[in-house]
Amino acid sequence: MAVNFVDRAVLHLSAGAGGHGVASVKREKFKPLGGPDGGNGGHGGSVILRVDPQATTLLDYHRHPHRKADNGKPGGGDERNGADGADLVLPVPEGTVVKDGDGRIVVDLVGMGTEHVIARGGRGGLGNKALASARRKAPGFALLGEPGEEVDVVLELKTLADVALIGFPSAGKSSLVSVLSAARPKIADYPFTTLVPNLGVVTAGSTRFTIADVPGLIPGAHEGKGLGLEFLRHVERCSVLAHVVDCATLEPGRDPLTDLEVIERELSLYVPDADLGGRPLAERTRLIVLNKADVPEARELAEMVKPDLEARGYEVFIVSAVAHLGLKELTYAMARHVETARAEVEAVVPQRVVLRPRSVDDQGFSVVREVGPDGPFFRVTGDRPTRWVRQTDFSNDEAVGYLADRLARLGVEDELYKVGAVAGDTVVIGSSDDAVVFDWEPTLQSGAELLGARGTDLRLEEGARPTRDEKREVMKDRYAARAATQEELDDERRAGLWHLQGDDD
């Protein structure tokens, strides 16, 4: 690969964390009960991928793969909210495909200005001012900011061009691009001179289209030999493929028909991404360009093999990039096929917005019983319980109580009862990566578990408060029991069964 062009990069992205809320009490002269005034924390910045016309390579991300957005600022007293973290916008070339670690396509970035939020920033925590209510007038705690998302993605650049020039190394593809367009690629007479795809804009009459010079292919390119797999993906988006055949080669075992068959085989064995809607390369419109006709022997060979190629159904052109021979006919033929391919493309159907409201019985969380190395436990999963746990300061007892109240109102404890959990069981909230583990102590006491035996109701049993005389009798019994115990201990000590430190032996 050339040091100035990279079409694949692995990125490790981290969104910004939300700022913490603040627990503060307003202190002002002659106002001892000013009330809570803690501000909220700012939201963390997100990581955004955006198509930029100035970006042509992924080289910068190859050299610096770790990127992080700004964190949100913490809140302050006097109801001052923290500032939001700035979003991190990463410019990428048009045609960049974003994949996750498992190879699944996340988004295909096509169209200037298209952007996608690849990692969302964490929410800022609420201050005690926002947590105050009629029941909790002066909260002594605040919520913590959520951590930002962390993702690892793979960026692959697939060049957007209408026509792709393919063929063996040194077949004259770069020379054709230089004479058909204003592009000025590097040209030399040794194999693999071209290490990067070269793009050029061609005008034929009223039709304008882009042409790409794909680096030379060799047998086994679909398996990664040479530069094959690195650049075959740049052909996926092209609607017309032009085989550039070197008719002046002196290599043994090389001739136009053999070269064509080798390249056709590589195209048929390469499998494009089906998720992008790409057709197999063997189904694309193909033109045969017999190049270097300025050499007499090459022109004779081209005129000899042209009937055979036309008999196979190909449209054949004999050209010379050096002598500018046959280029006009080739250019208009490319434009004609490009116009046909564009007309076959279905009209873009506006994406239908589908609203999927949450069902009435959807609680937003689930409780399942699992078995781990230390025995069975109950796992609570859901966006809200997981988020609430992340926002809780477990060093503050009041904050822990607030979390318990939120979980109880959500119905987590009722669900734990239903799946068979009892006091003391292990409960895990969240995924295995950042889960919070604790022993469950129920705070919700209601329902059939408080009823007595069948036919009875403990709530209906009469109970009277003890009188003063009854309390005195209970206290006298306690004193008498303690005196009897002390006398028994003294008798044992005098009998020598035990002695106090300092007693004479």
From TrEMBL:
Its main location: cytoplasm. GTP binds at residues 167-174, 192-196, 213-216, 291-294, 320-322. Gene3D superfamilies: GTP-binding protein OBG, C-terminal domain, GTP1/OBG domain, P-loop containing nucleotide triphosphate hydrolases. It holds the Pfam family DUF1967. Keywords: Cytoplasm, GTP-binding, Hydrolase, Magnesium, Metal-binding, Nucleotide-binding. Its EC number is 3.6.5.-. GO terms for cellular component: cytoplasm. Residues 161-339 form the OBG-type G domain. Residues 357-442 form the OCT domain. Its cofactor is Mg(2+). Residues 35-45 have a biased composition (Gly residues). Residues 29-48, 61-89, 482-505 are annotated as: Disordered. Residues 3-160 form the Obg domain. GO terms for molecular function: GTP binding; GTPase activity; magnesium ion binding. Mg(2+) binds at residues 174, 194. Belongs to the TRAFAC class OBG-HflX-like GTPase superfamily. OBG GTPase family. Monomer. This is GTPase Obg. It comes from Intrasporangium calvum (strain ATCC 23552 / DSM 43043 / JCM 3097 / NBRC 12989 / NCIMB 10167 / NRRL B-3866 / 7 KIP). The gene is obg.
